[in-house]
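lol ok so funny story. i was supposed to be doing the assay writeup but got distracted and ended up predicting the structure for this chain instead. priorities right. anyway since i did it might as well share w the group, maybe its usefull for someone
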Amino acid sequence: MSGTVEARIAELGLTLPEVVPPLAAYQPAVRTGVYVYTAGQLPMVEGKLPVTGKVGAEVTPEEARDLARTCALNALAAVKSVAGDLDRIARVVKVVGFVASAPDFTGQPAVLNGASELLGEVLGEKGVHARSAVGVAVLPLDSPVEVEIQVELTGEG
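and the output, tada:
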């Protein structure tokens, strides 16, 4: 039964989406032992990217930050698909975020704060994690951001 984490998501006015189908030959998430690793999650909403382009050019840092939140929500959906219940998350271990950046854009950490803050809002102390924020030339489908997470599950189940 889903409980506390999904209730918190609803309290924030958000909805846990369906898992975004893979764009190529991979799984949205894989569990090994007590860890779940997600594939890179794009900010898909109902099967579409709401915005495309490079951050610092066609996309503002504020828009990208919101997109990173969506990526994190999609990553949680991927975790649930293999863990069964988000309440089994013991902690978020690591977040890796990629920002398709204009050549002079250096605000990748601020963009990725969107994902990190969402995980904190939803999971509290369990959402505190290590993180990498990487600027790249281009991402799949011309997405401005992509986020992957690694979580540790409780031993039950």
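The beta strands are 29-32, 35-38, 89-100, 130-136, 145-153. The helical segments are 4-11, 61-83, 108-123.
back to the writeup now i swear
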